[in-house]
């Protein structure tokens, strides 16, 4: 009789045939690690590993030569999927101790460890070992161990497939099933503690405060009840005045910032009554822990790719709420953003979502789109073609928000170099001068002008860039004109195609005059929004007028580019910006203009990692006194410039160019993900292909321990959207981290076999090319 095998109590064993039939090694962590602990019944080896004996060998070194034999591409392959039996805490300790040489709780290419670790195989109960090699596998190991710890696991059986997972598949899976969830917020009793946290709050008061619209008394009562039921929150509930965006009032809130209430739904409370519940939304992440305007548009595109239509729809509901109660789609949902908005994307966002709604309730879908289009019309008339943003002489719109004083949400030292000369002039410290200036005790018209343009830069979303330095509020930018042209086309199309060419407006506000002229805007009386139904022909006329003004003031035939127009100096600003391509996204460029943009101007912005924000020549020289700005060369800063270009190029039939640019950007993101412990950062240096940048407030999305939890909102979206532009062959090449220069060189040379070789076994090819040197 065979001797009995002793084992710890409460241990569940799995049979060996179960190891070979592990059906879904790529399950999400909750499913993969959420089960009870399991061990194998070994027929020939002891269970000593279970009792604490660990046969793993630490890497041995002889001076600089690693003693372990290097595994080459022709090594014997396992007959079945390999799995490892792992003690979670001990292995975390070993991985960090051995591989995390810079102490940041991440395994990256910059760490100086040996990049090899032996793990015990599950079929041998840990007696036999197999080497895990390289930054990618080791960082994945650390991530998996962190996830197992999250689920309370002490020991796990880990599939090797989770360590060698195709990086494109892994990142896309993490975005869809993990990152979006981690970035989800809700403003109600359950979500207030998380959403009220504001890394930008420099007042020293961290207790949560919420501002509720004047016209929502039931919502105010709800939050007061939350404050009573959860006294530990110290929640301060404030009701806003009827006009919450008055500049003086907004400035008075600088020392008492708070979150702004957003849309809520009624739901059953389980006792036959109703209760308000916040509608979920996605935040960008890191220091940006609130709902943002244009971030949300690009995030919604990623959500739609991932099938999360309801989440995207809820974000439009919040924008409708903001337009109704705050007068505009806010820059962000904090009190200090009440005076300014951001680039307008609501119509395209709503139409994209509308096209993916469940078709089982057509009437409800139509009613929802009606609310969105009505809100967009109000925003258009009261914000974008209203003074002070409209320039009646040209008929073009500008980023020109109202506001007073110094923006309170910036870093403490952000304006030091600007304020210092004025403080010295008055014999005050910078802090003393700032307080007196903000309180109106000191008047500095030059500083007023500076902050007028600074607020405009922030409203543009491009904060900051030398393109807008000290002039943004006067600029009719190509990006804003393109967006408003798209608004006009979208609204006209929706009215004609969905609402039978007649749409009544339910909210009363003044309509902006058309045709646009200084005389029309000088009239005191304005037409009411409820005086007549909206019809498509007026919106198409507005779009045609804007296109003519774009061609007249912004298009430069000699340079084959659109430029911003300075309405004060009445001249083009010859800063070459990649937003020139937004005209393709909006459809306001002619076929000839599009051809010139693609054949003559695209190359100005295309670099190894995608499209840079502007040209190096336009940016100018950088020095200690003139530091780099994050929306200038050489940065690929966020998806707006990438996604807008991809979609615009595809719209005009330049699909290969769109695919090439998408490949470059995804290659850069994927290599960072592979080499830096799964990082998804806010921005890159696209020339150096590095996310290790320190422009302005540095990078976001990189400060995590062991496993990335969130990525960064619209960068997550850009990855998912970008993958939809790649064919299967390009996707494999990105997963193999094949450089764009190599990939497109082979493609242009027609070398199909070379392309296949690059993506079939890149590790094997790399190892075969090494010259192995043995020492005597």
What is the gist of this entry?
By secondary structure, the chain is mainly alpha-helical. Helix content is 40%, strand content 10%.
Gyration radius, rounded:
29 Å
- Tally of helical runs: 28
Shape, principal axes of CA atoms: globular
Walk across the major sheet and give the strand order: 11-10-12
> Which spans of ≥5 residues are poorly predicted at pLDDT below 50?
1-6, 42-53, 58-67, 72-76, 761-776
The secondary structure category is: mainly alpha
How many strand elements? 26
Helix content: 40-55%
* Range of strand content: 5-15%
Largest sheet: 3 strands, parallel
Mean pLDDT: 90
Ends distance: 51 Å
Keywords: Glycosidase, Hydrolase
GO molecular function: alpha,alpha-trehalase activity; calcium ion binding
Protein name: Trehalase
Family: Belongs to the glycosyl hydrolase 37 family.
């Amino acid at each position: 009789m065979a001797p009995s095998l002793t084992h710890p109590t409460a241990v569940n064993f799995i049979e060996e045939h179960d190891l070979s039939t592990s059906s879904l090694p790529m399950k999400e962590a909750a499913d993969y690690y959420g089960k009870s602990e399991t061990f194998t019944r070994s027929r020939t080896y002891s269970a000593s590993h279970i009792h604490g004996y660990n046969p793993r060998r630490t890497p041995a070194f002889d001076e600089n030569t690693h003693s372990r034999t290097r595994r080459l591409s022709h090594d014997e392959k396992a007959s079945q999927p390999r799995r490892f039996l792992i003690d979670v805490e001990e292995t975390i300790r070993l991985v960090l101790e051995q591989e995390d040489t810079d102490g940041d709780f991440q395994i990256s290419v910059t760490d100086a460890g040996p990049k090899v670790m032996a793990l015990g195989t599950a079929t041998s109960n840990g007696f036999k070992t197999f080497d895990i090699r390289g930054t990618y596998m080791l960082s994945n190991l650390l991530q998996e161990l962190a996830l197992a710890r999250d689920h309370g696991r002490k020991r796990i059986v880990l599939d090797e497939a989770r360590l060698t997972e195709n990086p494109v598949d892994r990142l896309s899976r993490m975005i869809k099933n993990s990152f979006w969830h981690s970035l989800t917020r809700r403003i109600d009793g359950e979500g207030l503690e998380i959403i009220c946290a504001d890394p930008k709050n420099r007042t020293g008061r961290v207790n949560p405060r919420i501002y509720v619209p004047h016209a929502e008394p039931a919502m105010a009562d709800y939050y007061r009840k939350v404050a009573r039921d959860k006294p530990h929150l110290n929640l301060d509930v404030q009701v806003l005045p009827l006009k919450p965006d008055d500049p003086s009032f907004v400035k008075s809130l600088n020392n008492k910032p708070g979150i702004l209430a957003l849309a809520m739904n009624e739901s059953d409370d389980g006792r036959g009554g109703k209760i308000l519940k916040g509608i979920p939304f996605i935040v960008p992440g890191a220091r940006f822990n609130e709902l943002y305007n244009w971030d949300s548009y690009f995030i919604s595109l990623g959500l739609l790719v991932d099938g999360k239509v309801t989440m995207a729809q809820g974000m439009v509901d919040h924008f409708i709420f903001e337009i109704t109660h705050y007068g505009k789609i806010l820059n962000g949902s904090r009190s200090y953003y009440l005076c300014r908005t951001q680039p307008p994307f609501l119509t395209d966002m709503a139409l994209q979502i509308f096209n993916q709604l469940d078709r089982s309730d057509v009437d409800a879908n139509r009613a929802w789109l009606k609310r969105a289009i009505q809100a967009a019309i109000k925003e258009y008339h009261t914000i974008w073609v209203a003074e002070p943003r409209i320039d009646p002489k040209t008929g073009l719109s500008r980023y020109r928000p109202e506001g007073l004083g110094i923006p309170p949400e910036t870093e403490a030292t952000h304006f030091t170099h600007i304020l210092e000369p004025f403080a010295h002039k008055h014999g005050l410290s910078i802090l003393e001068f700032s307080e007196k200036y903000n309180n109106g005790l000191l008047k500095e018209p030059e500083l007023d002008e500076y902050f007028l343009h600074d607020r405009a830069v922030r409203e543009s979303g491009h904060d900051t860039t030398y393109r807008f330095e000290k002039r943004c509020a006067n600029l009719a930018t190509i990006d804003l004109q393109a967006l408003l042209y798209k608004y006009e086309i979208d609204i006209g199309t929706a009215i004609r195609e969905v609402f039978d060419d007649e749409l009544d407006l339910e909210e009363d506000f003044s309509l902006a005059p058309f045709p646009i002229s200084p005389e029309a805007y000088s009239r005191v009386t304005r037409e009411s929004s409820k005086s007549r139904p909206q019809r498509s022909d007026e919106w198409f006329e507005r779009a045609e007028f804007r296109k003519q003004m774009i061609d007249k003031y912004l298009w430069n035939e000699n340079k084959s580019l659109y430029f911003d127009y300075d309405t004060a100096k009445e001249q083009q600003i010859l800063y070459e910006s990649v937003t020139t391509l937004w005209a393709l996204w909006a459809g306001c460029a002619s076929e000839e203009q599009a051809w010139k943009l693609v054949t003559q101007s695209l190359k100005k912005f295309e670099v190894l990692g995608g499209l840079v924000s502007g040209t190096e020549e336009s940016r100018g020289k950088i020095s200690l006194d003139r530091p780099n700005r994050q929306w200038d060369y050489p940065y690929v800063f966020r998806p707006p410039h990438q996604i807008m270009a991809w979609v615009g190029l595809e719209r005009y039939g330049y699909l290969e160019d769109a695919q090439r640019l998408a490949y470059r950007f995804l290659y850069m993101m994927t290599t960072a993900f592979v080499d830096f412990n799964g990082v998804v950062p806010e921005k890159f240096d696209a020339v150096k292909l590095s996310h290790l940048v320190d422009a302005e407030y540095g990078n976001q999305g990189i400060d995590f321990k062991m496993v990335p939890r969130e990525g960064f909102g619209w960068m997550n979206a850009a990855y998912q959207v970008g993958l939809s532009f790649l064919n299967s062959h390009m996707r494999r090449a990105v997963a193999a981290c094949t450089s764009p220069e190599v990939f497109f060189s082979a493609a242009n040379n027609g070398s199909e076999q070379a392309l296949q070789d690059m993506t079939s076994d890149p590790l094997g090819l790399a190892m075969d090319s090494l010259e192995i040197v043995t020492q005597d």
